[in-house]
Design brief:
about 290 residues, mainly alpha, 13 helices, disordered N terminus
Length: about 290
């Protein structure tokens, strides 16, 4: 079985995340959320590792999936191969009777990242989000035993989060991973070429493209507006309220500033505002 080379470069850590998953979950659920995050991050690191070829990345992601299902082989000395995060998560999923697609859909997204084929049209980008971000929302809803009526607005929120992260990391992804998430059709309409992302400032066309995407993200946020009212868990409603506030703050910053010339980040004030707004959202459920 293919193993991940030692010393592999890690793309991001938890400190780099805008919207930490499971920030406000109960103590009982924290181990499961932490295991999910570790397994997702380990697989993401495979797809983002510049030391691996495409074939090696795909083989390693297959290995992570095999480990998740408990199909990874042992050596003659009884040692297990790599991917302990996926193997441990699989055991927890089976114990909790969780849908395996909540993890394996993420692997589908990471395989697409490994192949590194930019989306041609907007729908291909949002379809990618259906695998890269939406499963995380479904996972959180599942472990809280929430009603399936929450799935559609949660999908809209998760898609919005993913798209915000793409815009924030536009230059980083291009320079570090040679990866572009901007749909080619939209780039052509705004006279944007991949080289524009490497400049010191956004061109008028790129700025217009970013603003168009921000407008579409706001549409996703409108579709997500019903989610807190549908969620039973107080803690989860609070976390959703925090995420909505942080997303809106980040959107305003991206619209106002230049993601090419500077790193757009959330401030301490943004977080304090979000915690308060989220609490209010949780308290006034209906």
């Amino acid at each position: 079985m293919t193993k991940t080379p030692q010393g592999a470069m890690r793309h991001k850590t938890g400190r780099d995340e805008n919207f930490s998953v499971g920030l406000l979950v109960s103590k009982k659920l924290k181990p499961l959320v932490a295991a999910y995050y570790r397994a997702a991050r380990a697989a993401d690191d495979i797809a983002d590792n510049p030391a691996l070829t495409v074939e090696q990345k795909l083989a390693a992601l297959d290995g992570a999936e095999a480990a998740f299902y408990g199909r990874d082989e042992t050596t003659d000395r009884g040692e297990t191969p790599d991917f302990p995060e996926a193997r441990d998560l699989g055991r927890l999923f089976r114990a909790e009777n969780l849908d395996s697609r909540l993890y394996t859909d993420l692997l589908t997204a990471f395989r697409r990242d490994a192949l590194n084929q930019p989306p041609e049209i907007w729908e291909q980008l949002t379809d990618y989000c259906n695998y890269s971000a939406v499963p995380v929302g479904r996972f959180m809803l599942a472990i809280h035993d929430e009603n399936p009526s929450t799935y559609l607005p949660a999908a809209s929120l998760c898609t919005a989060l993913q798209l915000v992260n793409h815009l924030q990391d536009l230059k980083y992804d291009a320079m570090t991973l040679r990866r572009f998430y901007l749909p080619k059709e939209m780039m052509a309409r705004h006279d944007v070429v991949p080289g524009d992302v490497y400049l010191n400032a956004a061109t008028p066309g790129l700025k217009a493209l970013i603003l168009e995407i921000c407008g579409r993200i706001r549409g996703q946020m409108k579709d997500a507006a019903a989610l807190p009212r549908l969620v039973k868990s107080f803690r989860l409603r609070w976390e959703i309220g925090v995420i909505v506030s942080l997303t809106n703050s980040m959107l305003k910053k991206i619209e106002k500033h230049d993601v090419i010339s500077q790193r757009i980040e959330l401030s301490r004030a943004d977080w304090l505002k979000a915690l308060g707004a989220g609490l209010i959202t949780a308290l006034i459920k209906r």
